[in-house]
Amino acid sequence: MNNWLFTFFNYFMIFYSSGLIFSYLLMTIVSFIQIRRRKKYYSAEYIKRILLNSPHTPGISIVAPAYNEETTVVDNVNSLLGMDYPKFEVIIVNDGSKDKTLEKLIENFDLVEVPHNYIEYIKTKPYKRMFKSTNEKYKRLVVVDKENGGTKADASNAGVNVAQYPYFVCTDVDCVLNPQGLYYLIWDVLSSDKRVIAVSATMRMANSCTMKDGRLSEIRPPMSFLPMFQELEYMRSFLIGKTWWAAVGGMPNVSGGFGLFDTEIAIRVGGYHGLSMAEDMDMIARMTAYMYNTKTPYKITQVPQTVCWTEGPATLTIFNRQRTRWGRGLFQFFHLYWDIVFNPKYGVYGMLTLPYLFIFEFLGPIIELLGFIVLITLIISNAVNWTTFWLLLFTVYLFMQFVNTMCINYDNYAGRVYNKHRWYAWLYIPSLLESVLYHPLTVFFALKGYFSYMTSRDFKWGEMKRKGFKKEASAIAASKNELMDKELKKTPGLD
């Protein structure tokens, strides 16, 4: 009996691994074709010139929830306000922060409370008040103060409720955006022959970057342990994964870090699920289902150019918290939307996207755990064919190196984020070590998230403590001078 089970499992693993390798190979090829096509026909300067001179350029609301972000909130809001786009607003949702996030916003942006007829299109935790700036420089800024809802989804919904434009960008307050990023996103909307309900954009790690005046003045790959692996992971996810899914019309999610949505459709579907831990997947599931149910042709696109940088978890404690939440969110997602999986009513999304995610993303950590248990059992019973074992392992390892290499080259080709070749070379270090040092952590925390969802109902935002960005010497000096001037003005006898 045991021999039959082991034989079955071995054949299953060969079939499973072959399917995964084949899918990655297909994704890699199709993604390159898409990136090449966009590079050939999409000129940033051309797009900007057209949209700046057009009276029909739509406005965009940038929604950024904030929970205990006092370390970086000022720099990041300045970054959001510095967007190069003719018509936009920045909506910061203070989701019941326990630190000085709100106080720093009020102090640094000259905010005052203003009356507002808050209409709850989407139900959220109670709204408290709204702030706007008395300084003309910050006229685009809106700050919403609300009770903590426990999830980013609830906070984002409050931002959508006050959004005044037909499209909104959902981002994180710790993100730094490419000043021209909105042009890329809205161009996909305006140039499509179908209604574009969402646009995904490529994101990267900002941990070793240098900030000046709310913008990144020097972009470098992360130098610390965890962020450098996340950088490679993000590149692979956006440049290969999401580019492929956009090409076949089955986008699974638009990152909560930076993505554009059709405001009307988002409100019609009830916004984000208020208790969702995977709000990026949840919103796309709701919007996609709505478009299929109403038989309305639609499109979700992917922008390969990097338009957003975020500070990734730099400590194991915070990384654990983030990935456990992601694992919990994935389990929750399939619990909520299982009726779509293998449902032909929902086309590519129901018959390809969600089955793939379930088999390779959701079941992947479980299968790897079972494989590890079987391997240990076989070692104890001295039943391992070590030649075959090492050959298969080395084959899978080499293939992942191939995928990572292509991913690094795609980034260099699509937009060349780094201006020095040695920084691209640096990315090969996490590529070589990922399967040994990083991947086991992601598997463990995913399983921990599954267990958390099955055994607990109460789960809140974790406090993602940020270190903030490096600042140029000139910027630091300017900040010190500004602080000194403020203190002098407080001194009696001085004007």
In brief, what are we looking at here?
By secondary structure, the protein is α/β, with parallel strands linked by helices. 55% of the residues lie in helices and 16% in strands.
Index terms:
three-stranded mixed β-sheet, 495 residues, ten-stranded mixed β-sheet, globular, 13 strands, alpha/beta, Spore Coat Polysaccharide Biosynthesis Protein SpsA, Chain A
Report on the architecture of this protein.
The protein has 495 residues and is α/β, with parallel strands linked by helices. The protein has one domain (2-486): Spore Coat Polysaccharide Biosynthesis Protein SpsA, Chain A, CATH 3.90.550.10. The protein has 15 helices and 13 strands. It has helices spanning 2-41, 44-53, 73-81, 101-108, 152-162, 181-190, 225-248, 263-268, 279-293, 316-337, 347-380, 386-414, 421-426, 428-455, 473-490; strands at 60-66, 88-95, 111-114, 127-133, 141-146, 167-171, 176-177, 195-205, 210-212, 215-218, 258-262, 298-310, 470-471. A hairpin with a 2-residue loop joins strand 9 (210-212) and strand 10 (215-218). Helix 1 packs parallel to helix 12, helix 7 packs across helix 14 and helix 11 crosses helix 14. Mean pLDDT is 87; it is low at 473-495.
